[in-house]
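Q: Predict the bound structure with zinc ion.
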Amino acid sequence: MEKNIGCEIDFLPVGNGDKSGDAIAVRYGSLGNYKVMVYDGGTKESGEALVDHIRKYYGTSRVDYVVNSHPDSDHASGLSVVLEELEVGELWMHRPWEYSSKILNNFRDGRITDNSLSDRLKENLYTAYSLEELAKEKQIPIYEPFQGYRIGEFIVLSPGRNWYLYKLISGFEKSPEQKETGEDNFSLGYILSSLNEGISYLTSLVNSSWDLDTLRDDVETTAENESSVILFWPFINHPILLTGDAGIQALEKAAYFAESEFKVHLHKILKFMQVPHHGSRHNVSSSVLDKIVGMRKDRNDGKTSKIAFVSSSKESTKHPRKAVINSFIRRGAKVFNTKGKAIRHSFNMPKRPGWVPLAPVQFSDEEEGWD
Ligand SMILES: [Zn+2]
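A: Predicted complex:
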């Protein structure tokens, strides 16, 4: 019975210019008994593409689970199209505006009231909030994806409910005036490097070495990104990890939870994973990659330990970072990038006519310097 179970994961293209996003469709189970999950919908345009894709390749207009990893619009927008056009069983998303009375103490400003905080969260995260409104209108049940919950066969490894409520939400709100508008904000200490990211064509390249990651441990990403729902499919033959825009903190917590709760070391068992945040250098460190992808291998090892997919827009100059991709390759991962095209990974699923093998991203002899 078990051995007939398969899974396919499709990363659809999202965005243009330097704007990347995620639109991911997953189908798993056995013939005649498949489940469909959408994990992020990208822009409205990629939402339309997801709907067409599910109808055409999965042969259904039903999606069992829609998951929004985090409220940024490059991940949430297209989900409204999926909710509008397909029959959706469950919507899984966080609703930070529901918790304002619990977290008011985190804010020093005594003038903030429960309602004003809730309203501000709704306003700032409007794309996500409008998903909730749409689901209510369509009577689609909404659940919140916190650590330990199951979405079909997938398990939420992060965020934990307390971390989300008492740390992350106040990070969303802490300093709206410090944030630039746009999808990929970084917290105050990183504004300079985030400006550097924006003019990445000026970022100097340095020679890379097989034996050395150039990633840093002291980087951080936004609280919104850290709130990304990390999903784990523990299927024994083919474990899978979806990471959204999660950063180092969330990935560490996910690895720890998998170990303490399920006695599994992710790096030993994973067969497929998503490179977080379109391959940004602000979301991974060498030590977190050791825990999830594995230790660096000998260059001549030649063994592929896992497949990693990264989603970046076709013209993106900053996603994915060579430094990040090289660090995955050093650990035996084969990395594939959407770069404006749909890409598919499948295990034990029917062949899909017309889809041909794709070449993995090669190890790069140069990486971006940090100065
Ligand atoms: Zn993103």
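A: The two ends are 55 Å apart (CA to CA).
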